[in-house]
Amino acid sequence: MKPIRTDADHAAAVEEIERLWDAEPGTPDHDRLEMLGTLVSAYEDSRWAIDAPDPVAAIKARMEAAGYTQSDLGRLLGSRPRASEILNRRRPLTMDQAWTLHREWRIPADILLRPYDLRQGT
Fold this sequence. Notes:
Layout: H1 7-20, H2 28-47, H3 55-66, H4 70-77, H5 80-87, H6 95-105, H7 109-112
């Protein structure tokens, strides 16, 4: 067992995982399978990391996934114009709005609290 440092190491580890895939739990082969899985996952997370969306992108993705409309967002935040300003990046989310979106729409709070760019002068 060795660290995965290159794409070639990664490919070899994935091949070994495929070979061990049906290993019986409790066997040395199954233990190796679990360790390789952990190593491959760590390598993939560092090599091909996916950035979390900014708050506006997260809100729009949640709206699309759940079939919510801008009117739904406006009702949730107390004002349709305010929802429009947020979606169009003219106004930042307040802490209360972020908390409401987290609680009601299950958008992760750490995403809603990230800094993001607003449109200037419009």
